Amino acid sequence: MKVEIQNHVDHLSSISSITVPSTHDPHLLDETCLMLSNLLTQGGRMASKVSLVREEMQKETLPPADRELSISVITESDTDDVLDLLKRFFFKDEPLNTFVKLGECKELEKYCTKSLGEQSSYKAVNSKGEIVGVILNGTIKKPQPGDEPPMKLADNCAHPKFRKIMALMDHVDENFDIFEIYPDIDRFLDCKIISVDTRYRGMGIAGMLTDRAIEYATQNDIKLMHVLCTSHFSARVMEKMDFAEVYRLPYADYRVNGEQVFDPEKPHVAVRILTKRIDVQ
């Protein structure tokens, strides 16, 4: 197999394409990627293409047994393994984390794992017992008359960079009420995080995990699934599974004291909420 990278850089018009032979030698692959990177100027317009080539080659090196995956419920005993996956991928890949250069954040770890006791979250596990993907969910109930207003997420957040992200979540909560759109529901399943090991991306794992979460909702008489996406790619996955957008806040429109707070790399341009009605059996 050969991977061809088309050259779209105008000032390198003499190079129409570069053909990279598939290899299992990581040193040769690194040298090839470095060679390609050295051809680029003014911001590395081909960097994403080099990254895609490396990801595709990494997929080819997976032994067949590692492609044999099972989906099962996450329990609190899985907490350390779930956090290990998130630290290696989600914490680094999520566009707002990347933009603020979040680094280590115990508050984010707590936020990610606080609903594991519900047993509504699921993991993809390979034949070695390694967690290679997760969907982390929690059930949110409709407020009742007389209930105390929920505490704002940012109020007790000590980490200054994560507090900025939580303040955005608070802003969304203050300006969007899902129960106004769906007055017939009394609760919904909130998808907080989907994360997949980069070696296993492109295998439909996010879809399998989402399907299992929808199955959980169906079995527990939950009529709606909800996901807040800060990533363009996460939103695209949900749209392919027939989730529909009900709210959008462009990052350019979220300002504090007149200043734009978040400006992540394209194509991440907005916070989006998507939902899906679930047929309860």
Automatic annotation (TrEMBL):
Substrates-to-products reaction catalysed = serotonin + hexadecanoyl-CoA = N-hexadecanoyl-serotonin + CoA + H(+); serotonin + acetyl-CoA = N-acetylserotonin + CoA + H(+); dopamine + hexadecanoyl-CoA = N-hexadecanoyl-dopamine + CoA + H(+); dopamine + acetyl-CoA = N-acetyldopamine + CoA + H(+)
Span of domain N-acetyltransferase = 193-243
The family database entries (InterPro entries) matched by this protein are listed as: Acyl_CoA_acyltransferase, GNAT_dom
Q: What is its EC number?
A: 2.3.1.87
What SUPFAM superfamilies does the annotation carry?
Answer: Acyl-CoA N-acyltransferases (Nat) (SSF55729)
- Pfam families, per database record: Acetyltransf_1 (PF00583)
Is the keyword Transport in the record? no
Give the top-level enzyme category.
transferase
Listed A to Z, the keywords are: Acyltransferase, Transferase
Metabolic or biological pathway: Aromatic compound metabolism; melatonin biosynthesis; melatonin from serotonin: step 1/2
**A GO term, aspect molecular function:** aralkylamine N-acetyltransferase activity
> Could you identify this protein by its name?
aralkylamine N-acetyltransferase
User: What organism is this sequence from?
Assistant: Anopheles braziliensis
